[in-house]
Amino acid sequence: MWQRIKTFFKDSETIFLARAQALIGFVAAIAGAMDWGPLVGLASNGGFTRDQIVGLAVVLAVQGLLTEVLRRRRDPEL
Q1: What angle do CA 61, 65, 71 make, to 5 degrees?
Q2: In the chain, N or C: fewer CB atoms in 10 Å?
Q3: CA 59 to chain CA centroid, nearest Å
Q4: Which candidate, 38, 33, 39, 36, places its Cα nearest to that of 57?
Q5: CB neighbours of residue 21 within 10 Å
């Protein structure tokens, strides 16, 4: 199983980082789009606003995708 995981990431930490960033951005976008009001009474005097969370999620997703594209562009074997 470990070998299949290493093969998925082409034995590259950079590709792992790019895919992790894209996944974190995707999950943050989903969390930012949800209405948490019915589940938790959130205080309005702190934390991130919904727009900030969505903006951070978009930045992380784009950064992860861009890192993946740039990494693959430099290595002809990928």
Answers
A1: 145
A2: N
A3: 9
A4: 33
A5: 20
Distance CA 29, CA 64 (A): 14
All structural domains of the chain with their residue ranges: 11-35+44-74
Q: How many CB atoms lie within 10 A of CB 4?
A: 7
d(CA 50, CA 33): 7
Other C-beta atoms closer than 10 Å to the C-beta of 76 total: 6
**What does the pLDDT look like over 1-11, one tens digit per residue?**
778 877 777 76
Q: Euclidean distance between the first and final Cα of the chain, in Å?
A: 21
Please give the pLDDT value at position 39. 57
Predicted local confidence at residue 41, as pLDDT: 57
Going along 1-78, which residue ranges are E strands? none
